[in-house]
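Sharing a chain and its predicted structure for anyone who wants a worked example. Both blocks are below, sequence first, tokens second.
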Amino acid sequence: MKKALYLAPSAIAVAVMASSLSVGVQAAGFVEDAKVTLGLRNYYFNRNYLNGTDPVIRGERQGQAEGWTQSFILDARSGFTEGTVGFGLDVLGLYSIKLDGNRGAANTQLMPIHDDGQAADQFGRTAVAAKAKLSKTELKVGEWFAVLPILRADDGRSLPQTFQGAQLTSNEIDGLTLYGGQFWKNSQRNDASREDMSFSGVKGDDFNFGGGEYRFNGNNTMVGVWHARLEDVYQQSYVQLTHSQPVGDWVLGANLGYVTGKEEGAAKAGNLDNKVYQGALTAKTGNNSFMVAYQKLSGDTKFMRIDGASGGTLVNDGFTNSYDNPEERSWQIRHDYNFAGLGIPGLTLMNRYVSGDNIKTANRDNAEEWGRESELAYTIQEGSLKNLSIRWRNSDVRRDVGQDLHENRLIINYPLSIL
């Protein structure tokens, strides 16, 4: 059964392409509503390990993780053929070349690492997904960059993570979006292969999920409820409430969430127990944005997520850390500024500080950690290089248990619109 599911995306994709190109009038929407972009991503990563916390790789201490890549991301999305049921096709072509990086690149996660510890010279893959639409309900089958509150693909390095599976999304009721589906393969951001879905290296069966989000109050308020199961490993539920409220010259916001997880089925990863209580409050006025956030974990298990996936569900997730250890509680203060207020549109600056404590480890019951992160970004607003963006990310992390590090990243993105 699983083998059939694995082969289904390619078979469906070929069928959709053949039928769409031969139907004539019905295929009009397939082409006319298509969008094709080529993203050029240049990524430099440098991480220095401090205070003797250098990782040991194949018997050698690595005081630094450094790498530099050039990536090409082709994102081609068709429209839907005309008719009661519309069909379409999405293709994601991913390819990355190593410009620099040796054994020290092992911890950059920019490229796959060979058995000898050296970073690959190049890697890539193609993700194809077929889609069908009836009324306001869409079925998608294949492989793509999936971003859901219960499962977020990571796009923090050279190439994005993708998942292979099937998803049904319905918007038949105004304000209500329902989701359901299954993913069975995982291609992590630094891997060209497709592996079984797993948690902390423990492979499970399929990842099944369902959820819904209801928006009301002029779209200012949203309530979301989700449930997911990595069969025979873990199950997880997530409830979220977001709200945005204009008050004079300010816009105030809140993001509240509760996550609970435990073992599932055969419990291949053992008994699991995790709960997360979290909340973030924001305030925006003019060109300034402020945020304070609090995140508390309880139970004997860290936050549960599919290997390689983003921790973006957590309010204190950042570039270098998610503050998601057992029993950890953390708070964050953040400020964003848009320099358009000073006559420099496209230039932004973000600074945040996160502090975590009460971390439970095998040897300690109250370990601490803190992190500071900054991002200076500029997007060209006009001319032949319009939309080219440059981001500099600078981070520091200090821990009682784990690695202390200082990190710099320089990321240049240039999206070319082909169609």
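Comments welcome. The chain has a mean pLDDT of 92.
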